[in-house]
Task: inverse folding
């Protein structure tokens, strides 16, 4: 199997982000929250502070490194939740059809009609800021694409000979869905999940930027950008580095998603970005 | 887990009895009968053949026995009795317990009938797990044994192969292993060799016949090939446009075909040896085409193509006339 440049570059970027998040305690230079020192405020990048310092004199490099933990946790965990919800709904809807399919379709259309960020914002407003609220808000609002894909795959796979054969051999509906349909639709599902994860990371940044996600002083890339708003003209590095981290991670996920799509599904399942 | 067998009529009556089966095809506001008035019986361990041109309703007859008709098709009437139990109204859950365990089926496309992402051994083993509650370890051992029975070479290695690593003939062997895994009473084989190379066809048919004979499994053999079916089966029913038009003991159908359509089928077979001397010298074909469901003619449905057609054929559906040895024919001019 040829992996292609997209997969390598995208996978590489994402792997670096993951590695940074996992090894944060060892590769960070200072504590991201506690080591504030107003004497060092807004220093440009130097040997001591590779990415410079912010308004409270904290090392931006260390904060970006720790920020990876939060951004990726939110991205991975809530996207897994989205995939599970979307695939469960889409798979059962496509396989069973009937009123359940109509219901799921309606629900999906409603979800697609509401901007998911606004929906997540509303949930955050109810739950209050914090990591758990973020996971819930973003894990419940981005399943429509997974659902669409799973449903379409179930519809086309269920007329395959081996699915018919399974029915003829006495497989029950859940066994058919789990052993015959799910493994055969995993490719497109993974593609959508990868692309969706980029979206979730962006959404986390947006919510934190708006002060509804991770609250300062804890470092998430979005909350760091939020902090940097006032000083963007005089100390651009305060916003450049967390911005770059978001950009590279999401770019990596999008490239990876595209690369995987070329591998799994040469005819390309389209998704509006 | 050995499901309690409902006996009663079971034990001595026929294994499968299909009576006046009607299959409805829901069209736009109209309902057609894709199959009507189809009756046949299969005894325990008997090989029964169902023959007819493509589109005459063989596959949907088989699906109705499995309880698997799906919209726009549905059971329009009739009785299906398996081992003394009426199953035409059985619930989905009851049918699921029969399928694969009491009645198994293999069909035409061995290329697509196996899950491409699952090793073939696993797919055989799944039957033991599903229907007999076996553990996976035990089931895998039995899957290897099942592969050996269908004469797949080096089964201990083949159980780990994926379907794409096997040839069409090998895959059909795997399908036979899956179908016969739980020792069903009836095996329905719907054109099991049509998609295979001619050289492999005979092997597969022989294998099926041999295994079923050894296990006492009855076969419902479905094919468009009268020669193949007559070779393998004790009795043969010939279908035309949704009806059984003749049914006889296999040898008798060649010796004394009673319906003009059956005669046409036999005359269109390339004949060897004895048969070639008996009949006409040239291969003939039946003129015309099979009518589509929407355009079935009134009366005898074969009348537009029949060489012996008269007025009554165009107006009146012929009743079944008895032939020797439980045979029947539906023709106004038989004999
Ligand atoms: N799912 C379906 N929808 C509509 N018509 C069908 C369907 N399945 C079968 N038919 C019709 O029923 C008739 C019998 O089909 P089938 O049993 O598959 O024929 P055979 O197996 O003898 O070739 C055909 O005319 C076919 O067009
Ligand atoms: Mg058929």
Result:
């Amino acid at each position: 199997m040829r992996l292609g440049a997209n997969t390598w570059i995208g996978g590489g970027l994402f792997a670096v982000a993951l590695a940074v998040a996992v090894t944060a305690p060892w590769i960070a230079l200072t504590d991201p929250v506690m080591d504030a020192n107003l004497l060092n405020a807004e220093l440009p990048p130097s040997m001591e502070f590779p990415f410079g310092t912010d308004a409270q004199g904290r090392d931006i490099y260390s904060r970006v490194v720790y920020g990876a933990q939060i951004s990726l946790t939110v991205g991975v965990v809530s996207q897994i939740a989205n995939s599970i919800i979307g695939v469960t709904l889409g798979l059962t809807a496509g396989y069973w059809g009937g009123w359940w399919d109509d219901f799921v379709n309606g629900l999906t259309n409603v979800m697609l009609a509401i901007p998911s960020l606004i929906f997540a914002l509303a949930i955050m407003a109810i739950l209050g800021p914090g990591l758990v609220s973020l996971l819930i808000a973003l894990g419940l609002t981005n399943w429509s694409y997974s659902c669409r894909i799973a449903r379409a795959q179930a519809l086309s796979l269920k007329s395959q000979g081996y699915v018919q054969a399974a029915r003829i051999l006495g497989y029950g509906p859940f066994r058919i869905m789990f052993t015959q349909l799910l493994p055969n639709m995993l490719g497109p599902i993974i593609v959508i999940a990868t692309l969706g994860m980029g979206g979730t990371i962006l959404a986390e940044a947006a919510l934190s930027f708006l002060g509804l996600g991770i609250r300062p002083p804890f470092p998430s890339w979005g909350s760091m950008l939020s902090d940097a708003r006032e000083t963007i003209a005089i100390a651009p590095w305060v916003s450049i580095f967390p911005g770059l981290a978001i950009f590279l991670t999401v770019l990596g996920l999008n490239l990876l998603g595209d690369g995987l799509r070329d591998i799994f599904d040469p005819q390309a399942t389209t998704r509006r970005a | 887990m050995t499901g309690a067998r409902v006996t009663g009529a079971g034990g001595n009556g026929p294994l499968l009895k299909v009576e006046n089966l009607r299959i409805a095809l829901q069209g736009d506001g109209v309902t057609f009968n894709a199959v009507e008035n189809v009756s046949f019986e299969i005894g325990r361990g008997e090989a029964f053949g169902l023959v007819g041109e493509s589109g005459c309703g063989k596959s949907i007859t088989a699906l109705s026995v499995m309880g698997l008709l799906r919209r726009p098709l549905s059971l329009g009437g009739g009785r299906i009795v398996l081992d003394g139990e009426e199953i035409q109204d059985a619930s989905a859950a009851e049918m699921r317990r029969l399928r694969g365990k009491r009645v198994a089926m293999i069909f035409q496309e061995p290329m697509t009938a196996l899950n491409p992402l699952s090793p073939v051994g696993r797919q055989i083993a799944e039957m033991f797990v599903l229907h007999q509650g076996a553990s996976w370890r035990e089931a895998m051992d039995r899957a290897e044994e099942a592969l050996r029975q269908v004469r797949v070479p080096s089964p201990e290695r083949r159980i780990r192969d994926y379907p794409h690593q096997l040839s069409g003939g090998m895959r059909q062997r795997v399908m036979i292993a899956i179908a016969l895994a739980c020792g069903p009473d009836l095996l329905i084989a719907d054109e099991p060799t049509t998609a295979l190379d001619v050289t492999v066809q005979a092997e597969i048919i022989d294998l099926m016949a041999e295994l079923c004979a050894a296990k006492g499994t009855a076969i419902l053999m479905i094919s468009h090939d009268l020669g193949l079916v007559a070779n393998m089966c004790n009795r043969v029913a010939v279908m035309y446009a949704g009806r059984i038009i003749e049914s006889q003991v296999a040898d008798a159908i060649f010796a004394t075909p009673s319906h003009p359509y059956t005669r046409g089928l036999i005359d269109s077979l390339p004949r060897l040896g004895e048969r070639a001397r008996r009949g006409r010298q040239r291969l003939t074909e039946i003129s015309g085409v099979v009518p589509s469901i929407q355009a079935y003619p009134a009366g005898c449905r074969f009348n537009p193509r029949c060489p012996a057609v008269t007025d009554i054929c165009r107006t009146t559906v012929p009743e079944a006339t008895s032939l020797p040895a439980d045979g029947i024919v539906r023709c106004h001019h038989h004999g």
